[in-house]
Write a structure and sequence with these properties.
Pfam families: Kelch_KLHDC2_KLHL20_DRC7. Residues 208-221 have a biased composition (Polar residues). Residues 75-99, 200-234, 421-457 are annotated as: Disordered. The protein is of the alpha+beta class and 457 residues long. It folds into two domains: 16-332, Neuraminidase; 333-424. It contains five helices and 21 strands. Strands 3-4-5-6 form a four-stranded antiparallel sheet. It has a four-stranded antiparallel sheet with strand order 9-10-11-12, with no helix packed on it. Helix 2 packs across helix 3.
Length: 457
């Protein structure tokens, strides 16, 4: 979108991109990875109805160039096998690696600077999915997190909406499963602790909700962060997360289809959150070749950066939240002190990540300004070179004009000298002109008179 300035007009314009662009599609999952990358995964091919896609593409927001994420087995998409929620691709050593089936109407969110989490959707057979997958954008490796993530898992669904609150809690709202017409409940995935901490109704609860019992804010809260269902929830909702001036997180949802299209705008406010769960975004899930079930292993020496912090700073959402603090009954003073220390360290960690993200954003802006200045300087250099060339040509013309002036002055001096010479020798010339030239034959008239008869003796 282009804006003409303060009080100016905004208008959409087509962006020219480089590289091989993805195929036309609808109902794809899109999210920002890191600060300057946009990932597009899956969707439905409009040329072939009910044919979902399984490819992933990344748009570099700096160079506006597309690249396709190639899987570890060398393939770029998986559109054929749709019998289960997991496909098996051949790895480099001949082993089978899990890959999600092609899908559409799913959601995705960033997890670290080069990973994306995908949940739900619908496959080619029209079956709704409830699996959770992790894609490493840098390597193209897929990891099935469905059995690795603890907590009360949400039921299968498609057409749901997702948004990250406080750079930590991935809230999933709405959607449908093709069978139940009621509310499927909400789900919250703690991206730091990597567990479902506030899932709503599952398939059995959706049957209850269809009979008139809808979840509300008065229901008994579950451990961790609990998100009640909005009054109107359905498929195709749009949702985003913002933050108030007081630091409260707010989810804003609009629209949806629950038998008929809705035009409601709904908001849910979270109080300012504080927490002490460990940051496990640097966990690298390993796949057991025997049963395909992954086991998480945490590196000892480094922590991964949170992509949402940089993305939130880049979107201008302001100061982020502190992690949630969970307290139980009967906690000893030593445990409380340890939790307070963990809270302080976690808050410092978040602060440092915010500062790091701000520095990265400032560095990116400085680089952009530097590039702009270098471009302007190059243009000024070219203008100076053009002006110097013109100045050299004008100097040559001026020198030629000066030579002509010198020649004219020399000719004028010669004319002045001749005139002066003529003026000094002018009287002799006049006398020479008035005196007739002597006749070598004498005076012919006198001779004629002398020959007359009168004068003849």
């Amino acid at each position: 979108m282009r804006h003409d300035g303060v009080g100016g007009r905004c208008e959409w314009e087509e962006v020219r991109t480089a590289g091989v662009a993805p195929l036309a599609r609808r109902c794809a999952a899109v999210c920002v990875v890191g600060v300057d990358a946009l990932l597009v995964h899956g969707g439905e091919d409009p040329a072939h109805p009910h044919r979902p896609l399984g490819d992933a593409h990344v748009l570099d927001l700096e160079t506006m160039a597309w690249r396709q994420v190639a899987c570890l087995d060398g393939s770029a998409s998986n559109e054929g096998e749709t019998k289960g929620e997991t496909n098996r691709g051949n790895g480099a050593n001949g082993s089978k690696r899990p890959m999600p089936v092609a899908r559409s109407e799913h959601v995705a969110c960033a997890w670290s600077d080069d990973c994306v989490i995908v949940f739900g959707g619908v496959d080619a057979s029209g079956r709704c999915l409830g699996d959770l997958w992790l894609l490493n954008v840098a390597t193209g490796a897929w990891t099935d997190l469905t059995r690795l993530v603890p907590g009360h898992k949400p039921g299968p669904r498609a057409g749901h909406a997702g948004a990250v609150v406080a750079d930590r809690y991935w809230c999933i709202v709405g959607g449908g499963n093709g069978r139940s017409g009621g509310d499927l409940g909400c789900a919250v995935l703690d991206l730091d602790a990597m567990e479902w901490c506030g899932s709503g109704a599952d398939e059995r609860e959706s049957e209850t909700s269809s009979s008139g019992l809808r979840a509300s804010s008065t229901t008994e809260p579950q451990p961790g962060l609990t998100l009640p269902s909005p009054s109107t929830a359905g498929e195709g909702m749009s949702m985003c997360a913002v933050e108030t001036a007081g630091g409260d997180g707010v989810l804003i949802a609009f629209g949806g289809y629950d038998g008929r299209c809705r035009g409601h705008a709904q908001a849910f406010r979270f109080p300012k959150l504080t927490a002490s769960a460990p940051d496990v975004r640097n966990v690298e899930p390993n796949i057991d070749g025997k049963n395909g079930v992954g086991k998480a292993s945490t590196p000892d020496s480094h922590q991964a950066h949170s992509p949402g912090v940089a993305a939130a700073v880049a979107r201008g959402l302001g100061t982020l939240f502190s992690p949630m603090k969970i307290e139980g009954d009967g906690v000893s003073s030593a445990e409380a002190s340890a939790r307070l220390r963990v809270d302080a360290l976690t808050a410092d960690n978040l602060r440092l990540r915010r500062e790091n993200a701000q520095l990265r954003e400032d560095a990116r802006r400085v680089v952009n300004v530097q590039r702009t200045m270098e471009t302007a300087l190059e243009q000024q250099k070219r203008r100076c070179e053009a002006l110097e060339n013109r100045l050299g040509e004008e100097r040559e013309r001026a020198n030629a004009s000066l030579a002509k002036v010198a020649e004219l002055e020399a000719a004028a001096d010669a004319l002045r000298a001749r005139i002066k010479k003529l003026e000094t020798g002018g009287e002799d010339s006049e006398e020479a002109e008035t005196t007739p030239a002597p006749n070598r034959r004498g005076n012919w008239f006198m001779n004629l008179l002398a020959d007359t008869p009168e004068n003849t003796p």
